[in-house]
Amino acid sequence: MSDDQRYGLARHAILPGPLALDGGGTLLPVEIAYETYGTLNADRGNAILICHALTGDHHVASTHPITGKPGWWSRMVGPGKPIDPARHFIVCANVIGSCMGSSGPASINALSGAPYAMRFPVITIRDMVRAQAMLLDHLGVSVLEAVVGGSMGGMQALQWAATYPDRVRAALIIASAARHSAQNIAFHEVGRQAIMADPNWAGGNYYGAKPPAAGLAVARMAAHITYLSEAGLTEKFGRRLQGRDAKSFGFDADFQVESYLRHQGISFVDRFDANSYLYITRAMDYLDIAEEHGGLLANAFRGTRTRFCLVSFDTDWLYPTRESRAIVQALNAAGAQGSFVELSSPYGHDAFLLDVPELNRVADGFLRAGVA
User: Cα–Cα distances in Å, from 107 out to 102, 111, 198?
Assistant: First the structure.
């Protein structure tokens, strides 16, 4: 196996389309940046699609070209790991609407010769999945051994099983939900308003000028709080001051937790586009798989032969365990084959990205169980 096959080969596809969108528009052509690991076997039956979260990308197990950091799921993907390029043909695609090479607001509109900006069509999670299906067709993959994702990636995995049941043998859905709560939507709206309140946003027409970095940084700070747990924040920072013995009684970062959040916000703007943040958070808020199927989530999975595994974390208050249980109950009502586990972790929602050995064991066992 070559180094490219083992550690990832970055690619870019321009698919002819058109891609019909839920909002009534079309996307033509469809550009998708993606990475592959491993090789497709003779019967083309060993493909695993990994779906990334809101601010993720296709660099799942390879060095990120902007930050220089390891891939965001290198704990799960790699030689000897649950998703292993020695056994699987692994595909991870940047979602449409994003800013890492797939069609999005920063892409050039062929009709105008300028970036789409806010003229980019509204997208949904199902639109993202349809674009991924087009990519898999392009790669010659008709059936997936599994689709795997956490957070927004889990939403895509669930949508895959609902939209293309005959193409998905197994779905591993981690720390996710079938729709957003009012609280989820509210946090996203705070972030969107922070971006749009930045004077540099300029109605989305900031390409070639100064971007709305301050607004995007605040949006990231607000969202990042939801990814953590109170216990985790307390253990890591408590009320400790930032390298001082006394408060400065000003608006500098007195507390360590303030400095941490500011760093998260500032580093985020170097790799992400503000308009993409608006589009993708809105797509997540629009998701309601039950609504697509007569208001009953079970209807989305009746007659399916897909195996499901749902994983939640006990300190995740963004997508708490009850969201996973609701999906499991719907699968049971539909007669689908599903399993569920709640794992203990101090890391909150971010646990699916961090060092939780039990998650690797669950994922490995579930994926191996489906191999004849």
Answer: 8, 12, 22
